[in-house]
Write a structure and sequence with these properties.
2 copies of one chain form a homodimer. Chain A is built from 16 helices and 16 strands. With 481 residues, the first copy, chain A, is an alpha+beta fold. The longest helix of chain A has 20 residues. Chain A is elongated, with a radius of gyration of 30 Å. Chain A starts with 8 loop residues before the first helix and ends with a helix. Chains A, B: Its EC number is 6.1.1.21. Chains A, B: It catalyses: tRNA(His) + L-histidine + ATP = L-histidyl-tRNA(His) + AMP + diphosphate + H(+). Chains A, B: Keywords: Aminoacyl-tRNA synthetase, ATP-binding, Ligase, Nucleotide-binding, Protein biosynthesis. Chains A, B: Pfam families: HGTP_anticodon, tRNA-synt_His.
Chain lengths: 481, 481
């Protein structure tokens, strides 16, 4: 036999006796992997994901959101200059003629583009969809290059902090509902951060770079962040120290009040606006009964360019798995903020629509739930089949086909074995393995007598049912279980 | 005021008073469109799509399918040489370092790649997902460059035609269930087509080109197709005429029997295999009660390279809209076939897994259902909100927020107006417009007496309910409606 590498086109096809197309259409290389940083979801994973997404979407609907869907790719210029330092992670499509396109990087920018394009001034929408980022994949942390986001946003000119408070309420409802263990939502305001930089003496040209350094405080110590500011970003040491006094603070509403009294910060108009809004926000959060879940954290900066006001990020405080397990480091599981300037960037006249929203990092939540299920050895059904149509008899395919069509037509979820002469034991084992609750068994004797045996897989009890009553009896049993 | 074109970065940001980031991060161009050939789905369209997809997926689950999800892009080589003449329509990603990637063109090739990669020998799976093709968009016909496919496939070595018959049953169930009017499923077999070409004297090198011509018979007359074969593809006129005798035939199982008797075709081994399978298929379709929906159509060719046996395509026979309406030309709404050689192309040793499947062209079905709804002026709710929390009073935001949090926490879908002092009439109008069935009204008097007014939007009846009983009463009313 010749080596595979020497076989070409038709020869290979003939050898394997399967392909019919002419030489050009036959592929000889063996390709058998998905691309790096992406993954297939197995049936088990699809079931877990569906349960989590159902729960998330039902919360969004509970808060009156409408669904929206946008294309996977946008015009390249739509995504340009929205994501700051992370813009290099955008996937571009190849120029094959026509427009220059990029895969969407989040669901927020397409939403803003939709609002501007359709001149929508007010909308509460949710969107569940995939986004793509060319990140170095550290898959252990639940980070992929393709991942699912669940977004909820409120667009429109309203009285301050009411929609913002609802966004935080939604985050609490979802994180509680998914039983991921204790969590905390860090809150800050971009205007307060800018105010801090201003009163500490950061030159305006360095705001962005210094903000990026502050953003690292969840992973690095203040000492290391300070070093970066001074050594790498050329900030004067005393300015860095002043910043340090602020950004190491976190607390509840009392910290908001304390900052109002701060002799330097209280001189800054932007910071005062931010503090005023946070004070109001905490009032509403108290009415919602979630204030104790929220921490005013001056180190929270958020990476994206488009935020203009309140920002927030939810972190899990403990992993729900067994104590002896490695804790799964999942970082933040939900985040968001106010972006009042983004819609205007897509409007020819710059008309703005104020927006606030949140994004649930479901991919990380999938990892946690999957690990929890592994730990507890939970088994999940990957099909919903209710009835299996079996026979102990040879040459009974015709009877089985007629019977299963009746079940399908009655809306009953049913399967059979695609064999002319399957063994009864094989058929019953299949039901046990797949968790199928009922089996109908048809044989020569039953056919003569006009009955079918209905068997419960769990109890192994069998009863004879007349053919006419079978569908009704199955429906009765299923509605009872 | 300077012209927009003269404003740069920060200046523009300052002018519009919204953006906080340094100059580089500010975009001045007004971009406000999605890319050509794609579209956003509005909330109305999302609701319609969800209903259709729910119905399709529940049929797939009724037949015991497991869910599977694969990434939006695959390694470029995975898609190479699978789609024949249409390969030019594949979207490639830009080479930004790393692997060469392409957006998936269908859900079948990723499924085959998954089976080979995971050495899965047997699987019944469904997959609902977007695929991308660089087609000249003729949007009126419901053709887009991004569109949703719903696939069901059965992989594994089974007795002949049982899974194939189930695929046709599924197509019938879905098309009947969606009430799209009368439909017909054309069936043919690639081996019969090849047999016809062989016995008519087509040189093997021209099989592919002639097959493509035959594929056009649903849009072109035989005269024009014949002309293409002879003038453009260099086929001898008498050979074309012999082909014409065959491919203009269509009928039921009797045509299968007739072809068995055909003096030329009955000499061809491949054709005989195909005819034998079709005969068996029609037996099973009769048992399923759907034989009268199926037409053996020798002109059916299907574009894709990977089919090796039975192929099929469902077409609507009439549009369900009003008689005076323009009929919507939607072409085929579902299609599929057997592809026994595809998995082997991804397996290093060429091991094959026989497969058969179908794809529902839901995008076209969306168009039909949307048009039908327009015609009948059907209104659909885009939110599921059950209760609106209103007040006739000024400065009652705190009470409303406390109350709505109670409702949300009880799982009730509720909304309020994001205003400190909304007008009662505005609030009630909103409920009527949005189809929200219940309103709870809280005012000073009610607060004093410890009651809430519960109003039915339809009947405009109001009753006072004590605060403690409100959630229970709402739940009772909602469960009754």
């Amino acid at each position: 036999m010749p080596q595979l590498g020497l076989l070409h086109g038709r020869a290979w096809a003939v050898l394997f006796g399967q392909l019919r197309r002419p030489p050009g259409a036959v592929c000889i290389r063996a390709v058998h992997s998905h691309s790096q940083g992406t993954r297939d979801l197995s049936p088990q994973q699809v079931v877990v994901r569906e349960k989590i997404l159902d729960m998330v979407v039902s919360c969004f609907k509970r808060h009156g959101a409408k669904g929206l869907d946008t294309p996977a790719f946008e015009l390249k210029e739509t995504l340009t200059e929205k994501y700051g330092e992370d813009s290099g992670l955008i996937y571009d499509l190849k120029d094959q003629g026509g427009e220059l396109l990029s895969l969407r990087y989040d669901l927020t920018v397409p939403f803003a583009r939709y609002l501007a394009m359709n001149k929508v001034k007010k909308m509460k929408r949710y969107h569940v969809g995939k986004v793509w980022r060319r990140e170095s994949p550290t898959i252990a942390q639940g980070r992929y290059r393709e991942f699912c986001q669940c977004d909820f946003d409120i667009a429109g000119q309203f009285d301050p902090m009411i929609p913002d408070a609802e966004c935080l309420k939604i985050m609490c409802e979802i994180l509680s509902g998914l039983q991921l263990g204790d969590f905390l939502i860090k809150v800050n305001d971009r205007r307060i951060l800018d105010g801090i930089f201003a009163v500490c003496g950061v030159p305006e040209s360095k705001f962005h770079a210094i903000c990026s350094s502050v953003d690292k405080l969840d992973k690095m110590s203040w000492k290391d962040v300070r070093h970066e500011m001074v050594a790498k970003k050329g900030l004067a040491a005393e300015i860095a120290d002043r910043i340090g006094d602020y950004v190491q603070c976190h607390g509840g509403v009392s910290l908001v009040k304390q900052m109002f009294q701060d002799p330097r910060l209280s001189q800054n108009k932007q910071a005062l606006e931010g503090l005023g809004d946070l004070k109001l926000l905490f009032e509403y959060l108290t009415l919602f009964g979630i204030a104790e879940k929220i921490s005013f954290d001056l180190s929270l900066a958020r990476g994206l360019d488009y935020y203009t006001g309140v920002i927030y990020e939810a972190v899990l405080l403990q992993t729900p798995a067994h104590a002896e397990e490695e804790p799964l480091n999942v970082g933040s599981v939900a985040a968001g903020g106010r972006y009042d300037g983004l819609v205007g960037m897509f409007d020819p006249k710059g008309h703005n629509v104020p927006c606030v929203g949140l994004s649930i990092g479901v991919e990380r939540i999938f990892s946690i739930v999957e690990q929890r299920m592994k730990t507890f050895g939970e088994k999940i059904r990957t099909t919903e089949t209710q009835v299996f149509v079996a026979t102990p008899q040879k040459n009974f395919l015709q009877e089985r086909l007629k019977l299963i069509a009746e079940l399908w037509d009655a809306g009953i979820k049913a399967e059979l074995m695609y064999k002319n002469n399957p063994k009864l034991l094989t058929q019953l084992h299949y039901c046990e393995n797949m968790g199928i609750p009922l089996v109908v068994i048809i044989g020569e004797q039953e056919l003569k007598e006009g009955v079918i045996m209905l068997r419960s897989v769990a109890s192994r009890e069998e009863v004879a049912i007349t053919r006419e009553n079978l569908v009704a009896e199955i429906q009765k049993r299923l509605s009872e279980s």
